[in-house]
Automatic annotation (TrEMBL):
Keywords: Coiled coil, DNA integration, DNA recombination, DNA-binding. Residues 233-434 form the Tyr recombinase domain. It holds the Pfam family Phage_integrase. Belongs to the 'phage' integrase family. This is Integrase family protein. It comes from the Bacteria. It comes from Thauera sedimentorum. Residues 88-115 form a coiled coil. The keyword Nuclease does not apply. InterPro entries: DNA_brk_join_enz (IPR011010), Integrase-like_cat_sf (IPR013762), Integrase_catalytic (IPR002104), Integrase_DNA-bd_sf (IPR038488), Integrase_DNA_bind_dom (IPR025166), Integrase_recombinase_N (IPR010998), Phage_Integrase (IPR050808).
Length: 459
């Protein structure tokens, strides 16, 4: 064993011979300290015995440690050995503690990132995006509007991590809307927030849901404990006189220009049995079968992942309206194609479109209905009230509840409807629409009921 007092010069000159893997130069001042040299490196080491076992600990590279510090470290390690402590165990514990500290720092950093990225605001936006990807454009627009008006302005809640949002915070949002006198909006907001949290909660387990909801880490829904707000049922129906005035405005009686496109949409929705405007405006020229006078709509309302085909075997006047819309769409496309020097693209033409590029916005039609309502005067009504009026009058004509449900495309759910009832109700719907068209004509002529209309016996 080579031993002499270590100095910086001796350490620099000390090398390992070519025929050896390593060589040691032991210090006389700190007997447990040595310099170990290999082919490419030199380091300070400590070596001692504990319980007859040799203990060797690498202190560090000679370029990183000065000699005095290395001797001090060797004496500290010897003190531990004298106390019966293995320095290697202490080193392992120190490394483990450092690793735990590093892991905790990374976790804290990740949590901070989660808190800054996965907020209630971000969850609301992700949920709206999910509705849009599912093709529920109307629901997405309504949900986005509710969040924008009643959640996002309250940054102290909107920018809280979604998984940390409490029931008290949600209740505060809903209460603000309710105390402003917006009972219906408060109920809708609660419903939308509950749906957003439930969707994110199910995302890790439901492969049909988008993976971008998983990082929100939602494990419970804070909206669950907040009571639902009952929706007040609408009661408004139009009288025969009000309906006659409504039809008169739509037909532009006394005006040479005839009805505008929005008026045609309102008129067709009425004559086709009170159809939902959003579904009617999505109809295309190819959805009308002139041979059978049948118009096909697509009902995506509710929790359906795929829209349900909704067929309307139209009565004569409604069928002529749709046929005229088809010809209008084709003529406009032909003229536009001729002006642009290309072949006309007659597939996929919108029935209701101002310029032929996109379908008419439902808001345009709703605004027109509001104008007519104001012009008529009296009690306010909406398109929903028109739809309710149609069903009420259909019931008065003896149209059965099942046929009305098929005709207005609502309440068609449950095991029976989903799996067993495969009847198309084509004849029933056509008979109902023929009777309804006759009833509207009688209202226009200010008659109580045409003599040739017979009440249909309930099925």
């Amino acid at each position: 064993m080579q031993r002499e007092r270590l100095t910086p010069d001796r350490i620099r000159r000390f090398t390992c011979s070519n025929d050896a893997k390593q060589a040691f130069l032991w210090d006389t001042e700190a007997p447990r300290l040595a310099v170990r040299a290999t082919a490419g490196a030199k380091s300070f080491i400590f070596e001692s015995k504990l319980d007859r076992r040799t203990i060797r600990v690498t202190i560090g590279d000679v370029r990183a440690w000065n000699l005095d510090d290395a001797r001090t470290e060797a004496r500290r390690l010897q003190t531990l050995v004298d106390q019966g402590t293995d320095p290697r165990e202490q080193k392992r514990e120190r490394i483990a503690a450092a690793e735990a500290k590093r892991a905790a720092a990374e976790a804290a950093k990740g949590e901070a990132e989660r808190q800054s990225r996965y907020t209630l605001r971000a969850l609301c936006n992700a949920y709206v995006a999910r509705l849009e990807r599912a093709g529920k454009a109307k629901s997405a627009a309504s949900t986005r509007s509710a969040f924008k008006c009643h959640v996002f302005p309250h940054a102290e809640i909107a920018d809280t991590p979604a998984r940390a949002v409490t029931a008290h915070q949600i209740a505060a949002l809903v209460r603000r809307v309710r105390e402003a006198g917006k009972e219906r909006a408060a109920g809708v907001l609660r419903s939308y927030l509950s749906a957003a949290f439930n969707t994110a909660k199910r995302a890790p387990f439901d492969s049909a849901l988008p993976a971008d909801l998983i990082p929100f880490g939602i494990e419970h829904n804070p909206v669950d404990v907040i009571p639902a707000i009952a929706v007040q049922r609408g009661e408004r129906t139009l009288s025969a006189g009000e309906l006659r005035a409504y039809i008169g405005h739509l037909l532009r009686i006394g005006h040479e220009t005839g009805p505008e496109l929005a008026d045609v949409a309102l008129l067709l929705a009425l004559y086709a049995g009170g159809q939902r405007m959003a579904q009617l405006l999505r109809a295309k020229a190819g959805d009308f079968d002139q041979d059978t006078a049948t118009l096909r709509l697509w009902d995506g309302k509710g929790k359906r992942t795929q829209p349900r085909e909704h067929l309307l075997p139209l009565a004569p006047l409604a069928a002529r309206m749709v046929a005229s819309l088809v010809e209008r769409a084709k003529a406009r496309e032909t003229d536009r194609a001729k002006a642009e020097g290309r072949a006309p693209e007659l597939a996929g033409l919108w029935l209701f479109s101002t310029h032929g590029r996109v379908a008419m916005n439902p808001e345009t039609v709703s605004n027109r209905a509001a104008e007519i309502c104001a012009a008529i005067g009296g009690e306010h009504f909406t398109l929903r009230d028109i739809r309710r009026t149609v069903e009420t009058m259909l019931a008065g004509l003896g149209i059965s509840k099942d046929t009305r449900a098929q005709l207005l495309s609502h309440g068609i759910s449950g095991v029976q409807a989903a799996h067993y009832d495969r009847h198309a109700y084509t004849n029933e719907k056509r008979a109902a629409l023929v009777a309804w068209e006759a009833r509207l004509e009688a209202i226009r002529q200010a008659e109580k009921q045409p003599a040739n209309v017979r009440r249909l016996r309930a099925a």
